[in-house]
């Protein structure tokens, strides 16, 4: 019986080890392949299929791993392993180019407008790109030129920003760190994420649940990809409602 139990334990441990390896490998894969998967490059199906297949396999392994999370020993080693792998995956993806995404262009533009002392809710990107529009401050016309492809790639450029004030403050902070760079925005997301995980640890402790359950969030491939590759701003909302 003991040998059978030990065999089962090794099986569940191997599932987690394989998942750890896959998550790190996926992060490196996206880092390397992301420049070829820019939305404005219109990547072909042959380029998208391997990327999608990798995401599906990783998601399946994540489901199997967390479904069996109670089968691994609830100790500090596994807790630190979960935290470490999740953190490393995030760090790897920070310099990656967002895959098939363009929302972040709006974040960069809004941050630049706010950081330069203008109201991002007043003028649409299309208004600013029209260099002959005298209703737009000349400084914003200059900022549009300075932004290069950023303002040109904003989706729905005729619409003024829809993002709330707190978001604008964080966008502007990213601009102050490094203008027009999506990695600066992702670094701020990481800081908010670290604050969120502390709240989750506190919640698990209060509910007397295993701290290993942090893996449901911290190792979730969708969370890691959508925030640290796609650079979506929803993490700010998660922190505020947690």
The arrangement of helices and strands along the chain is: HHHHHHHHHHHH
User: What class would the helix/strand composition place it in?
Assistant: mainly alpha
Multimeric state: single chain
What is the total tally of β strands?
0
Quote the average pLDDT: 92
Beta percentage is: under 5%
| Total of helices | 12
Low-confidence stretches: none
Largest sheet entry: none
Radius of gyration (CA) equals 21 Å
Shape: elongated
Distance between the termini: 43 Å
The level of helicity is: 55-70%
Features:
12 helices, mainly alpha, 242 residues
Characterize the structure shown:
By secondary structure, the protein is mainly alpha-helical. Helix content is 67%, strand content 0%. The chain has 12 helices and no strands. It has helices at residues 2-33, 45-67, 76-93, 103-115, 125-129, 138-147, 149-152, 165-177, 182-206, 215-218, 221-228, 234-241. The relative contact order is 0.14.
List the helices and strands and how they pair.
Blueprint (H helix, E strand, L loop, with lengths): L1 H32 L11 H23 L8 H18 L9 H13 L9 H5 L8 H10 L1 H4 L12 H13 L4 H25 L8 H4 L2 H8 L5 H8 L1
Helix pairs in contact: 1-2, 1-3, 4-8, 8-9, 9-12
């Amino acid at each position: 019986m003991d040998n059978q139990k030990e065999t089962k334990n090794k099986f569940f441990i191997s599932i987690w080890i394989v998942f750890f390896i896959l998550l790190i490998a996926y992060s490196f894969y996206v880092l390397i392949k992301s420049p070829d998967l820019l939305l404005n490059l219109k990547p072909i199906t042959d380029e998208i299929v391997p990327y999608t297949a990798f995401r599906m396999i990783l998601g399946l392994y994540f489901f199997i791993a967390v479904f069996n999370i109670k089968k691994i020993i609830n100790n500090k080693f596994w807790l630190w392993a979960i935290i470490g792998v999740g953190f490393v995956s995030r760090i790897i993806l920070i310099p990656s180019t967002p895959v098939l995404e363009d929302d972040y262009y709006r974040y960069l533009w809004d941050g630049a407008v706010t950081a330069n002392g203008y109201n991002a809710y007043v003028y649409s990107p299309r208004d600013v790109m029209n260099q002959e529009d005298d209703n737009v401050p000349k400084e914003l016309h200059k900022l549009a030129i300075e932004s290069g492809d950023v303002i040109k790639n904003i989706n729905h450029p005729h619409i003024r920003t829809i993002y709330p004030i707190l978001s604008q403050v964080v966008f502007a902070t990213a601009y102050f760190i490094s203008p027009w760079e999506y990695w600066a925005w992702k670094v701020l997301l990481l800081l908010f994420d670290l604050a969120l995980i502390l709240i989750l640890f506190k919640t698990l402790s209060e509910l007397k649940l295993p701290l290993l359950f942090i893996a449901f969030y911290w190792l979730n491939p969708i969370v890691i990809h959508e925030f640290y590759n796609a650079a979506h701003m929803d993490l700010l909302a998660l922190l505020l409602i947690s």
